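Workshop exercise sheet. Pairs work together: one partner reads the sequence aloud, the other fills in the structure field after running the prediction. Swap roles for the next sheet.
Pair: D.N. / O.F.
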Amino acid sequence: MSQQKRHRYKLGNVYAIPLPNGKLGFGRTMEDAGLAVYKHIGESEFDVPKTEDYQFIVGVYRHALRSDGWVVVGNRPFKADEDPFPPPQCIFDQISGGYQIYHRGEMRNSTKEECEGLEIAAVWDANHIIDRIMGDDKWHRTLR
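Structure field:
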């Protein structure tokens, strides 16, 4: 694995994410603290995904991008027909029982039906992302 370098956050950066099985996951930075995690699992830093085919898109803490072993292996600027923002995400308020949709920095009231199938709005840390890439869904919440 190449030496970790400090990188400023840049839209479209592709990070190699070391996995416990010795392989690499990959994630692409998006607007609004988003990380699009590719379905592709690579053998090396040079075995990057060929297409923008994502397994999931979540919010990520900036410090997670500086985790041990996470390195920028390229930058893929967003094309005119690509939305650089994560898709809408759902928020469930445990106190009121209400639902909201968060998208592009804005929240609006919603219904449970509108939220079905959407990612729950959260900001993930490096270990949570690695767990999810590896198929451990303990960090992935579902609607009530």
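Discussion prompt: The CA atoms of residues 73 and 104 lie 27 Å apart. What would you look at next?
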